[in-house]
Sequence to fold (796 residues):
Amino acid sequence: MMDVKRIISKIERDYIISNLKKEERIDERGLWEYRKFQIKSDVIASAEGSADVSLGETRIITGLKYEVGTPFPDLPDKGVCTVMAELLPIASPLFERGPPDEQSIELARVVDRGIRHADCVQTQKLCIKEKVSVYILFVDMYVINYQGNLIDTGAVSALTTLLSAHIPEGIWNEEKGEAEWTGKYFTGKNIVNELPLAITYGKIDDIVFLDPSLPEELVSEGKISISVTEDKITSIQKSGAATFSIDEIKMLGKKSLEIGKKLRKDLNLLQYQSKIK
Amino acid sequence: MENNEEEPIDDEFEDFEDEEDSREVVVPGEVLTEDVTNFLPGRGTILNKERNKIISLNIGLKQIKKNYINVIPLRGFYTPRPGDKVIALVVDKNPVKYKCDINAKDFGQLKPKNTIKKGKTRGFRGAGPMREDLNTERFDIGDILIVKVLSADRLNKPELTTVGKYLGKRTGGIIITIDPPKIPRVIGRNGSMIKMLKNLTQCNIFVTQNGRIWLKGEDIAHERLLIESIHKIASEAHTVGLTDRMQEYIINEKKKRGIE
Amino acid sequence: MPLIIKDEYPETLFREDGKRLDGRDLNELRPIKMEVGIVPNADGSAYLEWGNNKIYAAVYGPREVHPHHLSKPDKGILRVFYRMATFSVFDRKRPAPGRREKEISMIVADCIEPLLFLELYPGTSFEVFIEVMDADGGTRCASTTVAALALADAGVPMKSLVSSVAVGKIDGKKVVDLSGIEDKAGDADLPIAITWYNEEISLLQFDGDMNLDEMNEFLDLAKDALKEIHQIQLNTLKSKYIKLQEETLKQKDNKKGEK
Fold:
């Protein structure tokens, strides 16, 4: 396509819309087809878990770090898992340097909610001593190249990172008043309970389609992301000015569970579980 | 007539279709020759500090033309030159000018006086108030225009015009962007490559200097094949025998994809 | 921030067999792998794996300057932004850029600016973004090295490349290319860069203590290592083009053979 600008040309807009109406997309996908996922796990030596995930040419590198800290007062026996995202300026001429903007906050929050409400991370296993010491996990996503649909890419990236986790196991030493290493690690297998995936659709001119590429995203009037586990919907985010009918939402809910099942099977994310003892 | 294959453009890649060997790939800082008495530094080269060597400034192909050593760059950005035809995207407008993105370091300026409609004039002194609004085109933000660069220099923003053959607003079709240095290869010597592309894919195609290419085919399948072919040409621009190879590629792909 | 495993330094930086902890000889570089064109959206880009360092560099430019007041009417400006990912270090780094990152950004820019022809691009900027995804000693040297590649990949005219490495002293012995642990626990550390246009030093820092003889030895030690690194940079830039040339020539010859 043409080099990316903030303003998309009428020619591109017309081309995308007229082809979508014929259920055609420039990269030969159908309306409900994903671009190709490429996944590598445990790529960062300094991190306690990591993933390098590409969806088409959208690429996100995610790393996991932990700290030991005090739990929230209302959840004294649970650890904490937080998700952050940065749209790096290398990833697109559209991204500027600076503190996280709306788009990066949306990415972080939608991925976070998909994981949280799926009960994906077993935070009760992240407790070292109740009320005193718990693990705080930081899942930080960095966008390396942006060609549309950060959310679905981010969700797979965050999940793979958690699965690849190898976190030093700590045990409370009452005398020293701090956590001590047992010499072992606990892994994604111990803490990841569910495999939520985000499924994002764009909408242009009453046509809804899966996995918008960048030109499609720039032309879209709105989008909707639905996070799913094998049998449940765990979070929904609609954004942009487009409206969706009730029937459309019902259809997309059903479709998301189906697409999620297929994607989960195709990706086989459990293969990325860390094997450290 | 939407193609520009008959327009002569300096083919910097020259036609090394018939050459037996590939050109030498050189990189920034590489010594091209120490014979500074017989050779002069040409395009993409410079004399070193001691003035006893000619070195390359770019990643490119080494070329010797008469006694000049040139480097044909394989990577680079577009620098507007007067006479260039480029594809512009209107990004802003006010009563005195259109601001156009021409894929260069500066935005180009298109002033109403340079958008006179075909067959019209601006009017002349004594003929009454100048009706610019009747005689000039109206463009909107988001429009794609084929423009010519009137003037461009180091300090001033490029001036553009839509007055001329093939120039003006484009509708329909699609635009892709490739590395500007590869554009001559897509055209080919005497238009050989672009003619072949047009005939085999049955698409209309307009190639411009700023790396942007407008194309329109009978259906998306033909357009896809043409787009992929152009990207292939761009990535193999530095190899010999490219036109023949591309012809073979397109014929095979048409069979594979079941299109004619 | 409290961690389960503490960041402790080993007692000695050499093994019993005389090699360094990672098995290297005194003058040996860590394994280095480079690639260009790795970020499709950028005007130019490069990726570098150097030991455990993993660094991306991307160039955008020439383009408009933001904020506008920083633009210069008679020449372009070069801006380098060095950032480290939170997970690139043992103890998670705060996301916001700190003083060290700003310092390294400046140092890398100082190495690169003399190679460019900024006066040809008045009113615009070249921005080089360096993103360290994994860090293990010598990141400023690795960043300078990969930034030069990214600029060449962007087609920005350059008088030459610049290459950089850190030499130093660990447990009293002079070594080339300090790893993270050698940097932290060693005696002296000298990051250095040479621009090949005039074969002069464009980056030089030193922490530790040394006498004059030692300084001269350090500089000589560095020069050989830098030549090796430069060769890797040159091969990286050329290899994908040469490979394709060879493949297509072979195809052409096969065709001829068939006829």
